[in-house]
Write a structure and sequence with these properties.
By secondary structure, the protein is an alpha/beta fold. The protein is built from eleven helices and nine strands. The protein has helices at about 30-40, 70, 75-95, 110-115, 140-150, 155-165, 170-175, 185-195, 200-215, 225-235, 235-250; strands spanning about 5-10, 10-15, 50-55, 100-105, 105-110, 120-125, 130, 165-170, 180.
Length: about 260
């Protein structure tokens, strides 16, 4: 049985962590596979948006600590492990397409790491989010701390990281960890992604790049790269299609080129 399931329909890819018996704990092999999956989505024009979820009752309890004795036993192994984790979250964050994490049950530690890398987080009322690194003597990775800070602000980020507490859906939303709460979060997320998938892919890719870079702090935006996104959209067939559709009073048919 595969630990990660990928299904595609109507322009939306659904990526599901598939270790429900282990509450979808993420192994080192899964971090690496997720990085590959999201990297390949960048080249797949049939994928316009992505939904990331967990099979069963939980999104993910985080990294599979049961394998730490063999793969993360000292600072060298820990550094190698963090490279794989950062490559995974980096691939999710860098994908120039909308990504929504659908959170139910536990979303802890490494699971939160995955959710933070997504553009949006939709939860149901069973969602419980937390980062227990302070109870494991682990310092959360720099990029994930940056994402946490940009979403929650410094006071809440400190509370989350210092306390290692768990937060139920309503409190998590008030802190910025969840964007929306729904009784049927997967359906709400799919409906939202279908709406976004109809918009111009080049516009979304450019906006995502700039917002992600700007949110990590002043001076981090590569202005030349941002201009490349602007120029690519301005010189695209989609831009011409958008103008035609506006003039003809119809919905545009964007192709991402």
């Amino acid at each position: 049985m595969k630990d990660i399931i990928v299904a595609k329909r109507d322009g939306i890819a659904r990526v599901a962590l598939n270790r429900s018996s282990a509450r979808n704990a993420v192994t080192l092999a899964m971090w690496r596979e997720l990085a590959d999956i999201f990297s390949h989505f960048a080249c797949d024009r049939d994928v316009r948006a992505v939904l990331l979820a967990g099979e069963g009752k939980d999104f993910s309890v985080g990294a599979d600590i049961s394998e730490f004795d063999s793969i993360r036993d000292d600072k060298r192994q820990a550094a190698d492990y963090e490279v794989a984790v950062d490559a995974c979250s980096g691939a999710i964050a860098a994908l120039g397409k909308p990504v929504v994490a659908v959170i139910s049950g536990y979303c802890l530690g490494g699971g939160c790491h995955l959710a933070l890398a997504c553009d949006f987080r939709f939860g149901d009322r069973t969602a419980t989010i937390g980062i227990p690194s302070a109870k494991l003597s682990i310092v959360y990775g720099v990029r994930s701390v940056q994402r946490l800070l940009s979403l929650t602000g410094v006071a809440n980020a400190k509370r989350i990281l210092y306390s290692a507490d768990r937060y139920r859906a309503e409190q998590a939303m008030s802190m910025g960890l969840i964007d929306e709460i729904h009784d049927d979060a997967p359906r709400a997320a799919e409906r939202f992604l279908k709406q976004l998938a109809d918009n111009a892919p080049l516009s979304i890719a450019g906006a995502k790049y700039m917002l992600n870079e700007l949110s990590t702090g002043a001076g981090s935006l590569d202005l030349a790269m941002a201009q490349q996104f602007i120029d690519a959209a301005s010189d695209s067939e989609d831009f011409r299609e958008g103008r035609r559709a506006f003039a003809e009073k119809r919905a545009p048919r964007f192709r991402g080129a």
